[in-house]
Amino acid sequence: MSLLVVGLSHRSAPVSVLERAALSADAQVKLLQDTLATEPATEGAVLATCNRIELYADVDKFHAGVAELSTLLAQHSGVGLEELTPHLYVHYEDRAVHHLFSVACGLDSMVVGEGQILGQIKDALATAQELHTAGRLLNDLFQQALRVGKRAHSETGIDRAGQSLVTFGLEQLAAGRAVEAWAKDKKALVIGAGSMSSLAAATLARVGVGEIVIANRTPDRAERLAEILTGGDDTDVLARAVPMDSVPVELTRADIAVSCTGATGLVLTADTVAAAVEGRTGTPAALRETAAGPAGHLAPADAEDACPLDLSAVQGATGFSVMGEAAVAGMDAATLEQHAAWVDKGTGTVERRDGRRTPVEDAEADADLIAALAATAATVGRIPERRRPEPVAEAPRPAPVLALLDLAMPRDIDAAVHRLLGVRFVDLETLAEASADAPMAADVDQVRRIVSDEVAAFGAAQRAAHITPTVVALRAMAADVVANEIARLDGRLPDLDDKQRGEITQTVRRVVDKLLHAPTVRVKQLAAEPGGAGYADALRTLFDLDPETVAAVSRAENNTENAKNRGRA
Fold first, then answer.
1. Measured distance CA(260)–CA(268) in Å, rounded
2. What are phi and psi of 39, to 5 degrees?
3. CB contact set of 438 (below 8 Å; sequence gap of 6+)
4. Is 45 helix (H, G, I), strand (E, B) or coil?
């Protein structure tokens, strides 16, 4: 077994990188096809979710396999290899098995214990089977991962340790209130009709929303999901389907909007959300205290003309001057250099304490000082915190009138909407930050023990399976020896009747079977233990077995197993 996994997840990469590296369904297919076209890989499977992209392969060379799989991930994700490499992780053999089993149990999820990952692993296996890229190793691996995940959820309380991303996202939107009390009788808009959107709609119905509107580019899927929700026995929610071009209008009626589509661009822009808030309140959507574009327009979060420093944090300083050092206290070199570059562009304005806006030309006098402070920060790490600005009381903000949950990767909703007053916005990055502080249940330790036991069992089964073709070849050779000796006996004793010949044949076969039984059973037991791979080689050497015969048996078994596996997922 030479199992290799190369991937990245929310634990190794920021959401911005995961978002850019997200693979479409077509890209996953092409990635699998190209994986098997490479020399080191003989099997392949892709596990791609909203917060992980992993490529599993059976390889014959570790270093060549890592290099090839990393290159393929970079090519098909569109993120350069140099940029992607620092965020990649590699697991090999038993560590790779341990990783997948942990993923299947929800131990590696953004929300520990969530069970949706099992469906995603099942889909990954089904895709690999349909494309014939999953051989015996990956079929066995993914099917046992599904069993391990189900065992963890049935034998432990891991479900109490975490929930689905949808439930966790709704808890963040509820901001400390019970989700059921917060969501009761609200109107919800669900954008998309895939597995995650369907889970979101079902969860919203369960927590008591009064109405759910489903918008999807394929009307039939939206209508089907609406029918399922309306016909459910455990809820009395009203559900209906609408075309995608109705989303802006529906957004003015909705209290909650959840989006999870496969779109490569934004589904909800900041301006669309601002218009929806204005449609609900009757007044233009106001901005939080932050950098914004021209009046009436909300600048995207990554706008080039937006000042990279948080101006609200330096209101205690005189204007924006760094002379008092309070404005830059604790900032690192990269942030200072980023602001210096913004000033050097000669665009934008700087907000003063008295609310007036000072042209950048007047702020350019600070550029040299900023550069000097950046050099100091590069040497000592951060600017010393000598004085802090006086705290400024924040103006009271209106209660949110629209709650937005973005579960898509890449994102569906412009991150700039978090600047809008009247909007509460939660996305995958928000969930990652919130889940970092989530308490771990005691059941997690029990799940970890289950994973360790299952990894050991899988390794033993694979090592035992590795010697099986050798044992089969040995028994086939013994059968040939018996057949040849019986044929020779027929030539020497032609007068034997059928009964006598049958008795002699059975006796010889029993002798051979008894002689081989104990050694073959014992060698399988020994081969299943760590370090037992050498017993197959010893058996072939002792009995002078033809390597091609063993290989032929192995190929025949794999072909039979693969034919059965294609329908299992």
1. 11
2. -70, -40
3. 111, 112, 162
4. strand
For the segment 88-120, what is each residue's pLDDT rounded down to a tens digit? 999 999 999 999 999 999 888 877 777 788 999
Over the stretch 362-409, which tens digit does the pLDDT of each residue have? 455 555 656 665 665 555 555 444 444 455 555 555 567 899 999 888
Q: Report the pLDDT averaged over residues 482-508.
A: 86
pLDDT, mean of residues 170-179: 89
Range list of H helices, 308-364: 333-344, 360-363
DSSP secondary structure letter of residue 348: S
- pLDDT grade for 539, boundaries at 50, 70 and 90: confident
Segment 427-465, tens digit of pLDDT: 988 887 777 666 555 678 889 999 999 998 898 887 777
**Nearest of 447, 451, 453, 439 to residue 154 by alpha carbon:** 447
What would the pLDDT profile of 298-341 be if each residue is shown by its tens digit? Answer: 544 444 444 444 444 433 333 333 333 444 444 555 555 555 55
What is the distance between the alpha carbons of residues 239 and 232, in angstroms, rounded to a whole number?
A: 11
Q: How far apart are CA 189 and CA 446, in angstroms?
A: 39
- Cα torsion at 313, 318, 324, 329 (round to 10°)? 0
On the question of pLDDT at 569 being above 50, the answer is no
Residue 48 belongs to what H/E stretch? strand 41-49
In this prediction, residue 403 carries a pLDDT of 93
Greater confidence, 544 or 203? Answer: 203
Over range 19-42, report the average pLDDT. 89
DSSP characters over 436-493: TTPPPPTHHHHHHHHHHHHHHHHHHHHHHHHHHHHHHHHHHHHHHHHHHHHHHHHHH-
DSSP state of 365: G
- Could you tell me whether strands 52-59 and 41-49 are parallel, antiparallel, or unpaired per DSSP bridges? antiparallel
CA distance 526 to 470: 14
Cα 416 from chain centre: 24
Say if residue 311 is exposed, middle or buried (CB neighbours under 10 Å; 0-12, 13-18, 19+): middle
SS (H, E, C) 104-136: HHCCCCCCCCCCHHHHHHHHHHHHHHHCCCCCH
**Which pLDDT belongs to residue 258?**
94
* Angle between helix 136-155 and 547-565 (nearest 10): 50
Q: What is the dihedral of CA 536, 537, 539, 540, to 10 degrees?
A: 120
42 φ, ψ to 5°? -115, -15
Backbone φ, ψ for residue 403 (5° rounding): -105, 125
For residues 474 and 456, give the distance between their C-alpha atoms in angstroms, rounded to a whole number. Answer: 27
Question: Residue 401 carries which DSSP code?
Answer: S
Residues labelled catalytic: 50
3-state DSSP of 144-186: HHHHHHHHHHHHCCHHHHCCCHHHHHHHHHHCCCCHHHHHCCC
